[in-house]
Known about the structure:
By secondary structure, the protein is α+β, with helices and mostly antiparallel strands. Helices cover 60% and strands 22% of the residues.
Amino acid sequence: MNKFRVVVTILSIAICGNALAQQAYSLEDVIQLAKNQSPFAKQAETRKENRYWQYRFYKTNYNPQLRLNGNFPDYNKDYFQNRLDDGTIKYQQREQTNATLNLGLEQPIFFTGGTVSVNTGLNRYDDYFYDIKQFSGTVVNVRLDQPILGFNDLRWDRKTEPLRYEESKRSFVEEMESISQQAATRFFTVLDAQINLQLAEYNLANNDTIYKIEQGRYNIGTTTKDKLLQAELQLLQSRQQVTAARINLQNSKLNMRSYIGLKEFDEFKLVLPESIPVLRLSAERALDYARQNRADYIAFERRKIEADREVAQARGQRYQINLVASYGLNNSGDQMSALYDDPLSQQRINLGFNFPVLDWGRNRARMRTAMANQKLNDYVIAQDEVIFEQEILTQVAQFEVLLSQIEITKKSDEIAQERYMVSQNRYLIGKIDITNLNLALKDKDEAKRAYVAALRAFWTAYYELRRLTLYDFSSDRLLYNPDAK
């Protein structure tokens, strides 16, 4: 073994020994860390929880509500104006308390937009100046509040809110897949820097050996001064490249640490993800899964319903008619027990209305605006659906090219490595000069970088396809769980 190979071998052992002290992370490890502990994953989890409780709040709108309200004490001591029968005014003192307590069970009626309630109430009045105490109250009361021809928000919420909640669950999965893609991007940024440092250190060792060989040849007169200077310049450039590569690796590691939530003192190295999954992929399947699973596709339906809702709301604002009807039992007396002795019937019916007689086309303009917005919304959704499908088709179409690039660049990397070893041996025996050796070195480095770039393009596209379809074509499994909370 010649001197050149001994130095390279020793350097390689030193680099490997240093790497063994570091934690090795695969692409899958980094993505899992990002999903489990990154700040972005925690934000997505919090948004998901927030949307869940918003949905739970919406559900309570259709459940009965038991309400207790009152006012105790309402104390008042002052002078007031008392107009006497002869028209004169006399200021009199008063000291009173009023206390009220009401209990009601309300049930919304979602298909009519009204409310039916059962109520009971108690009032107490005390006049301390005249020493008067009285009770009054409603023993029981059944009441109906019903808007007629008005906008029924409960019925429309019943159409949109379940879609909105389902949309939020799928959006969460999409967010997690987006985190996977961002983690993969940062993974390859660090990997690029890591490989660049390895190449720079390897090249530095080579150029140091080459410089020493050129010095020996120059001393015995078998090489020229310009070739010696070229070797020295190449050595200086290699040292500069190692320094720059180390700084770049530190910065890219810091960026990845902050994204996936790693501690600053955790040292690691990355493993090149060369195992490419087999994708059972077709444009038709991808489109089908995207339509079934994506939040955007549910959003199309929700947006159409919301446009219809705005039209219905504009129509409901033209006329306002409200029916209030109640029946119950009430009484009054000096003692509380007197309220329940032969109470009297209590009835009420009221039909209120508000019709515009002359509004200078206000209602017509409101209706036309809502209808125009509905038409515009249909056009926008139609365009969004086209973009939605084109995005899927474009993503699927590039995978064949990406796989071909990986195959070509991997083979090119192997050939460039072998060519450099051959050039290295020929240089040692004096068959080629340093210029040709440097060209082989440059081709070797470029081939390695091209191979890593092809892997980056594939894995980034792979996780983008998962986000667009919420389906993993490598394991044939759905990423979205319909039964999840």
